[in-house]
Design a protein that fits this description.
It is built from 9 helices and 20 strands. With 463 residues, the protein is an alpha+beta fold. The chain folds into 2 domains: 250 residues, 3-Layer(aba) Sandwich (Rossmann fold), CATH 3.40.50.300; 173 residues, Coagulation Factor XIII, Chain A, domain 1. The relative contact order is 0.10. The structure holds adenosine-5'-triphosphate (ATP). GO terms for molecular function: ATP binding.
Length: 463
């Protein structure tokens, strides 16, 4: 029995998998194990035991969103499957209060030969709805999934994003008390993810519960009340999402075993070919009229190669600079000016689909803006060979920023926007300080093309 406030209670949960060296060993075990035990002549073991979960215990309260964090293979999916009842545990208990709907592996719950509409009936009836109830909801499910005419096509023709749209839409409409989501949203596009996030917030407001696995630390910090860090099948830590996420990232960093000293890369010739003048630090203020005390002065501190970082380090970022549009390294700029963020590094292995990106955060850790190379190179991929130097340049107009401290984190990954392996992520690679600003509210000011004020009683307008 669960007390009223608890949605999920997990006690001493353990899961052992049998791992067979050869496929025929499984058959032999099935054939002979009964025989051996029948005649009590001792048994021969045809498998190794792999313990995926050990002594896992925690509770999820009603109305909570709990994020599960952990490295690949640590046991997250195993745990969710046991909670959903699709996988038996070896030991321990799971008690859930209320109706559970889950979005686990892509395609689970769907028949690939059925159309989208047929699968809505199929999946929603597995989740406990009668045909009448589904009929009442089907228009809302189709509208939420928003996959156009594909709804009448067999789901085997769907992209992974379409699968997720349909599956999420079904679980969102079956009146579940608990939603369990296993990293599936990672393949959705940004608009759909926003729609799901709005749904999730409303769902929680109604006192319902969500348990989800995510590799996206930001969504765990922003959405969850609690985080559970699973490591090698055990619960390593439970608690406040921000502190658990920080500890988890720090451990990822420590466990990345390449201690490549990033400064060893000799990039002088490489930079001069690109026209980068890194030796001189040029103060852009000289070119500007110093007339107003509302000017947004930004002081830029140089690359900190000792900043916290993580990643598997198949490639390392070795330098980050802000340049003028003439490619001169700057230590000062002004909100509204054009700058180039230059990120340089070395690849230690072959990387087929590199993505280099950055994000600018304020001192509260709020993501102000950022970008990456993925879309710009989607049709003309650049791959990296072992020992290649690489660089990327992001040219943009620096927004006008309220006074305060800011940081630029940079990263190189391999893959695409939704699914990638992080090679090197450097937190706070560059720090900069906004000294004075005309901005009194909002996160950024956008340089205006023009500002007009009209009044019908006046003949002309003032610009
Ligand atoms: N059916 C199975 N037979 C044997 N081992 C398995 C089986 N399913 C999972 N495992 C192993 O159990 C461990 C935990 O797997 P699980 O899928 O739960 O990890 P995960 O944390 O969800 O990983 P990921 O983040 O990569 O999805 C892994 O080492 C995996 O290889």
């Amino acid at each position: 029995m669960l007390c009223d406030s608890i949605a999920i209670k997990i006690e001493n949960l353990a899961k052992d998998y049998k791992v067979y060296k050869k496929p025929e060993d499984k058959l032999k075990e099935m054939l002979f194990s009964n025989f051996f035990s029948l005649f009590k002549i001792g048994t021969k073991k045809y498998y190794e035991v792999y313990t995926a979960l050990k002594s896992v215990s925690f509770e999820v309260k009603k109305g909570e969103i709990v994020g599960i964090l952990g490295k690949n293979g640590c046991g997250k999916s195993t745990l969710l499957q046991i909670i959903c009842g699709t996988l038996p545990s070896t030991e321990g208990n799971v008690v859930v209060s209320g109706k559970v709907a889950a979005l686990l592996e892509l395609g689970v719950g769907f028949n690939p030969e059925y159309t989208g509409i047929e699968n809505i009936y199929f999946y929603a009836s597995i989740l406990g709805l009668t045909n009448k109830q589904i009929e009442k909801k089907i228009n809302r499910i189709i509208e939420f999934a928003d996959i156009g005419d594909f709804i009448n096509q067999p789901v085997k023709t769907y992209s992974s994003g379409m699968y997720v749209r349909l599956a999420f839409s079904v679980i969102a409409h079956v009146d579940a008390d608990i939603l369990i989501i296993d990293e599936a949203l990672a393949v959705g596009d940004a608009f759909f993810i926003q729609k799901c996030m709005r749904f999730i917030r409303e769902f929680i407001k109604k006192g319902r519960t969500i348990l989800f696995v995510s590799h996206d630390i930001n969504s765990v910090i922003n959405l969850c009340n609690k985080a559970v860090w699973i490591d090698n099948g055990i619960v390593k830590k439970i608690g406040d999402p921000k502190s658990i996420s920080n500890d988890y990232l720090a451990e990822l960093y420590n466990s990345s075993n390449t201690n490549e000293k990033s400064n060893e890369v000799n990039s002088k010739d490489y930079r001069s070919k690109l026209g980068i003048k890194s030796e001189t630090t040029y103060d852009i203020r000289r070119k500007l009229l110093i007339t107003s005390n509302l000017r947004n002065d930004l002081e830029i501190f140089s690359f900190n190669d000792e900043s916290k970082s993580f990643g598997c380090k198949g490639a390392v970022i070795t330098d980050v600079m802000l340049l003028t549009s003439d490619k001169e390294n700057i230590c000062w700029t002004i909100g509204g000016e054009q700058v180039i963020l230059y990120i340089e590094g070395k690849s230690l292995i072959n990387i087929s689909k590199p993505i280099i990106g950055f994000c600018v955060k304020d001192k509260l850790g709020q993501h102000i803006f950022g970008d990456n190379t993925y879309l710009a190179y989607i049709n003309k991929s650049v791959s990296l060979k072992e020992n290649d130097l690489f660089s990327s340049e992001f040219a943009f107009n620096m927004p006008i920023l309220p006074a305060g401290d800011y940081s630029i984190s940079v990263a190189i990954a391999d893959g695409d926007q939704s699914s990638h392996q992080q090679h090197h992520w450097i937190h706070d690679a560059i720090i900069f300080k906004s000294h004075s600003s005309s901005i009194s509210s909002g996160l950024v000011g956008i340089p205006m093309q023009s500002i007009k004020l009209h009044a019908s009683s006046m003949e002309s307008s003032y610009e």
